[in-house]
Amino acid sequence: MGPKKVKLVSFFGRPVYASGFTLIELMVTIAIIGLVALFGIPAFGDFVLNNRIRGQTSDFVGQLTYARAEAMRTATRVTVCPGTSSGCSGTQWESGWVVFNDTNANAAVDSGETVIGIGAALDGGNTLRSAAFTTYISFRHDGSSTNIAGSGLAGSFALCDSRGYGDKAQAIAVSASGRVKALPANAVGSGMSDCGT
Q1: CB 125 within 8 A of CB 162
Q2: Distance CA 154, CA 174 (A)
Q3: What residues contact 104, with CB distance under 8 A and at least 6 apart?
Q4: How many domains does the chain have?
Q5: 17 part of a folded domain
Q6: What pTM, to 2 d.p., does this model score?
């Protein structure tokens, strides 16, 4: 089907052709646009959520990897904690985090300790929580994850969005040796059973 040409006669007696669509063609076009919108808009919403959570996971994994590398490079303790450049605060990692050289190994930003990285608060109402690393995660000179006393510490973070716990949520697992990896929160070996909220 195509536009129909209708012969008209102009005021000056010359033929003029007008083209357009029939009502049926217009209705079919509107129906097709409606179907595309019906199926396309929800898929686009998931696309946005998936990209957001992947980006946030990548950023957090990058910060932890950087903290571990700095601990090994400088042969000092490097700690990451929820908070801002002014210090550690709370247990809600989604509000932002700070990476610093923890020279006295007390998991707190003290006078004279250098802040080497800051993570911005997560957008989209996403949460980032951990039962093992409630208020900090530290890396020793050999790259291992440790608690304040110096014992090895392993655990996971759960990064969740409005869809909650499941294959769309992400787990960031940290081994006692300090290796960091991301995987779906409900995958075997994630160490997570919920969003930790």
Answers
A1: yes
A2: 6
A3: 110, 113
A4: 1
A5: no
A6: 0.76
